[in-house]
User: What shape does this take?
Amino acid sequence: MNLLTSMRYLVALNEHRHFARAAQACHITQPALSNALKALEEELGAPLFDRIGRRVRLTDSGRQAVQSARV
Assistant: This one.
């Protein structure tokens, strides 16, 4: 997976706080978004978000990654 694309997905997840809505905004399926973000977490070696039911909250590492993606 392209790192730039994965970072774009992370930014969308941060904006929508919901996997399905973020996937819809990125024009991909929810499983594809989840898989890309799981791979990004593995590549960066840190959890980027916490799942809270159907919503998500970024971890400190996730917030740093979003800030880096927006630069």
